[in-house]
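Reopening: structure tokens for the pyridoxal-5'-phosphate complex, inputs below.
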Amino acid sequence: MTEIATHLATAHQEIAAAARRAGRAPQSVRLVAVSKTQPAAAIVTAAATGQRIFGENRVQEAREKIPACPPELEWHLIGHLQKNKVRQALSLFSFFHSIDSQALAGAIDRIAGETGQKVDGLLEVNVSGEETKHGFTPAQLREAFPALAALPHLRIRGLMTMAPYNENPEAARPVFRALRALRDELQSAHGSALPELSMGMSGDFAPAIEEGATLVRLGSSIFGQRPQANAE
Ligand SMILES: *Cc1c(COP(=O)(O)O)cnc(C)c1O
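Re-run output (same inputs, fresh job):
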């Protein structure tokens, strides 16, 4: 498992190089190590190199693994969340990348209010329009944004997207560019600060950073291939 340390070091170099190409500070991009399907031991190994942010996509899996991991880690939810799991998710995760509907945002806000929490999260946008993807369409988001930005217990910190799978990372660039443009538009239309853009995975994080990503979500390039069953 020393490979994990090597992979993390390589990823940090590539992140820094992409940031510099875009005239950005390397520290303006944070690496979320996507540890879904990986055993707690792999997370412990990554944490020993100084990696702090880990991304999981299933509440049940996170609930089993988090207690076996160092307490100083920061857990981000990156997958679709069912409304009946919001309460559990709020007790496990400090940041929500994948708020993909107004109903879910409302449920998170309501339960965070009950538990006295303030929650930070991102709105997931289905930029490419693929039917298999979760998230707001750009049109839905323009419509819903004022109500979402006004929720008292959920602080919307930015936007998140997933580009369609393609062997060629450049194919994803227009999706990332569109997400950034939508963020810029919402910021100036509503005067809200939306500093975070969660975009870019193992295959396409370099163009994502060049287009403004502040959070990249890397799974297989850090931990190796996942079993097919949870490939999404
Ligand atoms: C699995 C997953 C990732 C990581 O994908 P890799 O290609 O393994 O880097 C990133 N984001 C989301 C939402 C995921 O579900």
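The chain has one domain: 3-220. The beta strands are 30-34, 53-56, 74-77, 95-99, 119-124, 154-160, 196-198, 215-218. Marking as resolved unless the reporter disagrees.
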